[in-house]
Write a structure and sequence with these properties.
Layout: E1 19-22, E2 25-29, E3 42-46, E4 50-54, H1 61-70, E5 75-81, H2 92-99, E6 102-105, E7 132-133, E8 139-142, E9 145-151, E10 160-164, E11 169-173, H3 191-202, E12 208-211, H4 220-242, E13 247-248, H5 249-256, H6 265-281, E14 285-287, E15 296-299
Helix pairs in contact: 3-4, 5-6
């Protein structure tokens, strides 16, 4: 199902080594590879002299040290966070303490409701609090750089990307990545929000996205269209399976995810749940009670 997307699984960054990858942009990858993080979470340094850091990454001593070493002799004025999964924001307190920078993000993690659990390896950083909550469209600027905050909920409720005006590129967090599709895992993730955010990005002109994992996304508007068509195809596959009769989520996963890495079965189930939540909301699919991972689903 993902063969229709022109993935780029190349990756040239060695862990905790800084490299300039675009004008006024340096990248450092954390040494936290895994099925959800690929080769590791990528942190970015924007500007020279007075700089911003985008996504300081996990609470990993070696990565924090590498980040701080990379900006030695410079002033970090801003820390920007795309979202509050544990591989992106937990290094913020240490970097803030060392630099005195102001922390910007869309908002804290969505509070968990009764009965909800953290899910996946990249669960929410519930302790994160930005100094400044950014609304959609807000502009943050520093010495020689301007970043536009673009709200892109879907992967998480508080996901936000940042358009770097002077370089005509966009820091995409986990919303759009070159190496893989994005996991949309309820309750924090929502497929309706994710699709709306993809359409929002498709209308933008930045040709390059720098994601939270993996290599840069080239020809980004075209690539986003591939992602939209892929999700539409996934929805069609789910409806095709339900056309054969009622089914639970494990049955649907087996039908629509062929050759899936066993480590990703749980994540695939949550993505199917996200699709089903939207289909139930539209009245196309029905289930008993609210959509859940344990539910039985059938066509309306």
């Amino acid at each position: 199902m993902s063969d229709d997307i022109p993935f780029d699984k190349s990756f040239g960054l060695k862990p905790d080594r800084v490299r300039e990858i675009a004008p006024r942009v340096r990248a450092i990858a954390a040494d936290n590879p895994g099925p959800f993080t690929f080769k590791g979470t990528v942190s970015y340094i924007v500007g020279r002299g007075q700089v911003a850091i985008v996504d300081p990454g996990p609470d990993d001593a070696a990565h924090v040290a590498a980040l701080l070493d990379a900006v030695r002799g410079e002033t970090v004025t801003h820390i920007l966070v795309t979202h509050t999964h544990r591989d992106h924001s937990p290094a913020v307190p240490k970097v803030k303490a060392a630099t005195g920078a102001t922390v910007f993000a869309h908002r804290p993690s969505r509070p968990l409701h009764t009965g909800e659990l953290h899910r996946l390896d990249a669960s929410a950083d519930m302790d994160f609090r930005p100094d400044v909550s950014l609304p959609d469209g807000e502009v943050v600027s520093g010495n020689g750089w301007t970043l536009e905050a673009v709200a892109t909920p879907g992967h998480t409720a508080n996901h936000m990307v940042f358009a770097f005006k002077e370089a005509d590129l966009l820091f995409a967090g986990d919303h759009v990545m070159a190496w893989s599709t994005t996991i949309v895992a309820p309750p924090d993730g929502a497929m309706s929000d994710y699709m709306a955010s993809l359409h929002k990005l498709a209308a933008r002109s930045e040709p390059i996205y720098l994601p939270g994992h993996g290599a840069p996304v080239r020809q980004a508007p075209r690539y986003v269209q591939f992602l939209i068509r892929h999700r539409q195809g996934r929805e069609a596959s789910i409806l095709h399976r339900l056309g054969k009769g009622a089914a639970d989520i494990p049955t649907i996963v087996k039908a629509v995810y062929i050759g899936l890495d066993p480590r990703l079965i749980g994540a695939a189930g949550l993505s199917v749940l996200a699709h089903l939540e939207e289909l139930v909301a539209r009245g196309t699919v029905v289930t008993d009670g609210i959509p859940s991972i344990a539910g039985i689903y059938r066509l309306a």
